UniProtKB/TrEMBL annotation, chain A:
Transmembrane keyword on record: yes
Catalytic activity reported: a quinone + NADH + 5 H(+)(in) = a quinol + NAD(+) + 4 H(+)(out)
Organism: Ekhidna lutea
One term of GO molecular function: quinone binding
Keyword Hydrolase annotated: no
Domain of life: Bacteria
Subcellular location: Cell membrane
Main location: membrane
Protein name: NADH-quinone oxidoreductase subunit J
Group of enzyme by EC: translocase
Role according to the record: NDH-1 shuttles electrons from NADH, via FMN and iron-sulfur (Fe-S) centers, to quinones in the respiratory chain. Couples the redox reaction to proton translocation (for every two electrons transferred, four hydrogen ions are translocated across the cytoplasmic membrane), and thus conserves the redox energy in a proton gradient.
UniProtKB/TrEMBL annotation, chain B:
PANTHER family cross-referenced by the UniProt entry: NADH DEHYDROGENASE SUBUNIT 1, NADH-UBIQUINONE OXIDOREDUCTASE CHAIN 1
Cell membrane listed as a keyword: yes
Cellular component terms per the entry's GO annotation: plasma membrane
Record gene name: nuoH
Pfam family, one: NADHdh
UniProt-recorded name of the protein: NADH-quinone oxidoreductase subunit H
Membrane protein topology class: Multi-pass membrane protein
Catalyzed reaction equations: a quinone + NADH + 5 H(+)(in) = a quinol + NAD(+) + 4 H(+)(out)
Keywords: Cell membrane, Membrane, NAD, Quinone, Translocase, Transmembrane, Transmembrane helix, Ubiquinone
GO MF terms, alphabetically ordered: NADH dehydrogenase activity; oxidoreductase activity, acting on NAD(P)H, quinone or similar compound as acceptor; quinone binding
Segments passing through the bilayer: 66-89, 101-122, 142-162, 174-197, 234-252, 264-283, 303-322
Similarity comment text for this entry: Belongs to the complex I subunit 1 family.
From TrEMBL, chain C:
Organism: Ekhidna lutea
Gene Ontology terms: cellular component: NADH dehydrogenase complex; plasma membrane
Regions annotated as coiled coil: none
Reaction equations catalysed: a quinone + NADH + 5 H(+)(in) = a quinol + NAD(+) + 4 H(+)(out)
Protein name in UniProt: NADH-quinone oxidoreductase subunit A
Alphabetical keyword list: Cell membrane, Membrane, NAD, Quinone, Translocase, Transmembrane, Transmembrane helix, Transport
GO molecular function list: NADH dehydrogenase (quinone) (non-electrogenic) activity; NADH dehydrogenase (ubiquinone) activity; quinone binding
Taxonomic superkingdom: Bacteria
Native organism taxonomy: Bacteria, Pseudomonadati, Bacteroidota, Cytophagia, Cytophagales
Alphabetical list of Pfam families matching this protein: Oxidored_q4
Protein's gene: nuoA
Segments crossing the lipid bilayer: 6-27, 62-82, 102-123
Similarity section: Belongs to the complex I subunit 3 family.
Topological category with respect to the lipid bilayer: Multi-pass membrane protein
Entries under PANTHER family matching the protein: NADH-UBIQUINONE OXIDOREDUCTASE CHAIN 3
Enzyme class: translocase
C-alpha cells in the first residue's frame, strides 16, 4: 500500500517537473508547479512530518502558485495571445543548471541526514509550538521581522508598478 | 470509510434539498410561491433539474484551453470535499484522525482558488476571467480573517482536532464555546461573514454577479460540468456551517446534558445546527444587496482583519485570566 | 501508523470524490446528445462575435492583494502551533504560570510587528481599490425647481 503511494507521489512530482520543463505555455507551467508541490506535501506525510505537509499545501500550493499565476497574467504585455516562453542562452542555462544540480547532489551526499525511522509523535505540532517559544525564540521573532521587511518591500515595488 | 460514505451521501441529498429550500426561502421573502409544479409543493423540482442537467449537451467553445478547462471542476470539488475528511460525524465516529485537524481543513479548502482561477483562465472568455480574478482576490482576502477567527477558538480549546474540540464542549448548552466563553461571539461573526465570502454567497457574490458577468468563472461550462461548480459551492456552504457549529456551538453535543445523546442523536444535533446556519445564509442572501469591489476589499483588510487580530489578543488574555 | 491511516481517510476522500464525479460524467455522457456546430462552439460574449481572446494584461491590484495575503498566511501558519500550546495546563503548572505570560508576550511582539506591516500597507494606500469617479452632470433642466413643488 505504502509503496503504491510512494510510486504515485514520485510520478506526480516528476510529471509536474516534466510539464514545467517542456511546456511553452507559462500558465500551464504554473499549474504543473502546483502538482509538484502537492506531491512533495505527500512525501512529507509519508515521512511523518504532518505540519510541514499542511504548510506546504497552505502556503505553497494555495498561496505561492496563485501569486505566480497572477504574476504571469499581470505581466503579459502581449494582448490576446497565449503566454508562451521562448528559450535563449541555452548553453549558459544548461551549464548553470547542471552545476546547481551537481552542487545540490554533493551537499545532500555529505549532509548527516538521520536515516533511521522516526518514532511517531502524538503532539508534533505542540512540540514545534513549544520549541518556537523557548529554544528558537530569536528565530521566531526574526521571522516576524523578515515578513515585515518583505511586506514593506513588496508594497514599495508594487506601488511603483501601479504608478507606471 | 463510514465518514466518507456518510458525507458523500449527505452532501448529495443536502444539495437537492438546499436548492429547493433556497428557492422557497427566496419566494417566501419576496412574497411569492416559488416552485410548485413538480411533486407536492414542488419538492421534486431539483430532482427534475438534476435529470435535465445530466441530459444537457456538453458544449465546449473551440477557443478554450482544453486540459485545464476539463480539470478545473475536479480540482474545485476535490478541494472542498476533502475538507469533510476531518469532520466528526457523531460522538463515536471522528472522521480522519490527523492531529492537524482544522489546520489541514483550512489548507485544503484554500486550494479551490486554484481550480477557480484555472476555470476562468482556461475558458478564454472575458466574463469568466473577470469573475475568476474577482473570486480569487475575494477568497484569499477573506481567508486571513477566517483563519484568525479559527485561531481564537484554538487558543481556548488548545487542540486542532475537531472531534476533541467537540468532546471538550460536552455537557449541555452552557458548555458550548460561544456561551461558556463569550469572547468568542465577535470571532463567530467574523467567521460567519468570511464564510459567506469564501463560498461566494451574497452579499459577496461579485464573482458571479449575473447582471454584470453572466455567470462569472463558470460562464463557459454547461451541463453537469456546470453542476459540479454548483455542487462545490453548496458543499462549501455546508462545510463551513458544520465547522462553525463544531467550533462555536458544541458540534454533536445535545443542548441538554443528559438527554438525547446516542450516536443517531448526536448526528442529528450536528446536522441540525449546521442546517440552521445554512438557513441564516439563505436569509442573508435574499435580504442584503451586493457589495462593491472596493467595499469588499476594505471590509476584509480594514475591518475584519484588524478586529480579528485584536480578538486574538483578547482571547489570549481571557484564557490567561481563566487559568488564573 | 496512526498518522498514515489518518491521511488514508484523506486520500479516500480525494480519490472517492473524483471517482464519483467521473462516474456521474460517464453516466451523463451516455445520456446526453453530442452534435457540436461551429456556431455553438463560439465563445459567449453577450451575443456578439467575440473580439480576440480574453488573455490579456490585468490590473496590478490583484497581484498586490495576493502578495499581502501570502505574508499574512505565513504569519497565520506560525500562530497555529503557538495557539495549541498557549493554554497547556501542564506546561503552566511546571513553570508556575510563567509559561503562559512569557509565551503570550512573545507572540504579542510577533503579531505587533506584523500589525506594523498592515498599518504601513494601509497608510500607503495599497488596500484602496481603484474606483471610477462618476462625473457630476452639468445639465440644467429648463423646468424650474419650484415647478415640482407646485405639482401635486
Amino acid at each position: 500500500m505504502i509503496i503504491t503511494v510512494q510510486i504515485f507521489l514520485l510520478m506526480m512530482v516528476l510529471a509536474g517537473v516534466g510539464i514545467i520543463l517542456f511546456t511553452r505555455n507559462i500558465v500551464h507551467a504554473a499549474y504543473a508547479l502546483c502538482l509538484t508541490l502537492l506531491g512533495i506535501a505527500g512525501v512529507y506525510v509519508l515521512v511523518m512530518s504532518e505540519l510541514l505537509a499542511v504548510v506546504q499545501i497552505m502556503l505553497y500550493a494555495g498561496g505561492v502558485v496563485i501569486l505566480l499565476a497572477f504574476g504571469v497574467m499581470m505581466t503579459n504585455r502581449l494582448r490576446g495571445e497565449k503566454v508562451l516562453s521562448g528559450s535563449n542562452n541555452k548553453w549558459i542555462g544548461r551549464i548553470i543548471s547542471v552545476g546547481v544540480f551537481a552542487g545540490l547532489c554533493y551537499l545532500i551526499s555529505i549532509s548527516p541526514f538521520q536515516t533511521t525511522s522516526v518514532e511517531k509523535n502524538e503532539d508534533q505540532i505542540a512540540q514545534i509550538g513549544v520549541s518556537f517559544l523557548t529554544d528558537h525564540i530569536v528565530a521566531f521573532e526574526l521571522i516576524a521581522f523578515v515578513l515585515l521587511v518583505a511586506l514593506v518591500g513588496a508594497a514599495y515595488l508594487a506601488k511603483n508598478a501601479a504608478d507606471e | 470509510m463510514i465518514s466518507f460514505a456518510f458525507y458523500l451521501a449527505f452532501l448529495l441529498i443536502f444539495v437537492v434539498f438546499a436548492v429547493y429550500a433556497e428557492r422557497k426561502t427566496a419566494a417566501f421573502i419576496q412574497n411569492r410561491l416559488g416552485p410548485m409544479e413538480v411533486g407536492p409543493k414542488g419538492i421534486l423540482q431539483t430532482v427534475a433539474d438534476l435529470l435535465k442537467m445530466l441530459q444537457k449537451e456538453d458544449i465546449r467553445a473551440s477557443a478554450v484551453d482544453i486540459i485545464p478547462y476539463l480539470l478545473a471542476p475536479f480540482i474545485v470539488f476535490a478541494a472542498v470535499f476533502t475538507g469533510f475528511a476531518v469532520l466528526p460525524v457523531n460522538a463515536d465516529l471522528s472522521g480522519s484522525t490527523i492531529t492537524s485537524g482544522v489546520f489541514f481543513l483550512l489548507a485544503i479548502v484554500s486550494l479551490d482558488v486554484l481550480g477557480i482561477l484555472m476555470a476562468g483562465w482556461a475558458s478564454n472568455n472575458k466574463y469568466s476571467l473577470y469573475g475568476a480574478m474577482r473570486s480569487v482576490a475575494q477568497i484569499i482576502s477573506y481567508e486571513v480573517p477566517l483563519g484568525l477567527s479559527v485561531l481564537c477558538v484554538i487558543i481556548i480549546s488548545g487542540t486542532l482536532d475537531l472531534h476533541q474540540m467537540s468532546v471538550l464542549q460536552s455537557g449541555g448548552i452552557l458548555s458550548w464555546y460561544i456561551i461558556s466563553h463569550p469572547v468568542l461571539i465577535i470571532p463567530f461573526f467574523i467567521f460567519f461573514i468570511s464564510g459567506l465570502a469564501e463560498s461566494n454567497r451574497t452579499p459577496f457574490d461579485l464573482p458571479e454577479s449575473e447582471s454584470e458577468l453572466i455567470g462569472g468563472y463558470h460562464t463557459e461550462y454547461s451541463g453537469f460540468r456546470w453542476g459540479i461548480f454548483m455542487l462545490s459551492e453548496y458543499g462549501m456552504m455546508l462545510l463551513l456551517s458544520i465547522l462553525a457549529s463544531i467550533l462555536f456551538f458544541g458540534g454533536w453535543n445535545s443542548p441538554m446534558e443528559k438527554i438525547a445523546n446516542g450516536p443517531i442523536w448526536s448526528t442529528f444535533w450536528l446536522l441540525s445546527k449546521s442546517l440552521l446556519l445554512i438557513f441564516v445564509q439563505m436569509w442573508v442572501r435574499w435580504t442584503l444587496p451586493r457589495l462593491r469591489v472596493d467595499q469588499l476589499m476594505s471590509l476584509s483588510w480594514k475591518y475584519l482583519t484588524p478586529i480579528s487580530i485584536v480578538m486574538l489578543f483578547v482571547c489570549a488574555l481571557w484564557k490567561l485570566w481563566l487559568i488564573g | 501508523m496512526i498518522q498514515i491511516s489518518g491521511f488514508g481517510t484523506v486520500l479516500l476522500f480525494i480519490v472517492g470524490g473524483i471517482g464519483f464525479l467521473m462516474i456521474t460524467l460517464l453516466v451523463g455522457k451516455l445520456l446526453r446528445p453530442n452534435n457540436p456546430t461551429t456556431e455553438k462552439q463560439t465563445t459567449y460574449e453577450s451575443g456578439e462575435e467575440p473580439s480576440g481572446t480574453a488573455w490579456g494584461q490585468f490590473n496590478v491590484r490583484f497581484y498586490i492583494v495576493a502578495l499581502i495575503f501570502l505574508l499574512f498566511e505565513a504569519e497565520l501558519i506560525f500562530l497555529f502551533p503557538w495557539a495549541t500550546v498557549f493554554g497547556d495546563e501542564q506546561l503552566i503548572a511546571e513553570s508556575d504560570g510563567l509559561w503562559a505570560q512569557f509565551s503570550m508576550i512573545e507572540t504579542f511582539i510577533f503579531i505587533g510587528i506584523l500589525l506594523v506591516g498592515l498599518a504601513y500597507v494601509w497608510s500607503k494606500g495599497m488596500l484602496e481599490w481603484v474606483r471610477p469617479k462618476p462625473k457630476a452632470s452639468d445639465f440644467k433642466s429648463r423646468i424650474p425647481e419650484s415647478a415640482y413643488k407646485d405639482f401635486k
